[in-house]
Design a protein that fits this description.
With 77 residues, the protein is mainly α. It has one domain (2-24, 44-76). The protein is 75% helix and 0% strand. The protein contains 3 helices and no strands. The chain has helices at 2-21, 26-33, 47-76. Helix 1 packs antiparallel against helix 3. The longest helix is centred in the C-terminal third of the chain and has 30 residues, at 47-76. The protein starts with a helix and ends with a helix.
Length: 77
């Protein structure tokens, strides 16, 4: 059971890293706000919103799985 939570933890960590790397920087969206055009601002449910949600869910899953793994490891030893 401990190994299963460790695998979940590793997958959630990789998901967090990938979703953060795929996000654009704040400087890119700042240039669009200062007069440049950004077509994504007019669409509902943009890619950035999806990546932000995925990052949040992966981070929560990682924290929960690490905490559960630590508790299980502590009680096993």
């Amino acid at each position: 059971m401990l190994i299963a939570f460790m695998v979940i933890s590793a997958a959630a960590a990789l998901g967090t890293i990938i979703s953060v790397v795929l996000q654009t920087s704040k400087a890119d969206s700042f240039s669009a706000a200062m007069g440049g055009t950004d077509a994504s601002q007019f669409r509902k449910g943009t890619r950035e919103e999806l990546l932000a949600r995925l990052t949040k869910y992966f981070a929560i899953a990682w924290i929960a799985s690490v905490a559960i793994s630590a508790i299980m490891w502590y009680h096993a030893h």
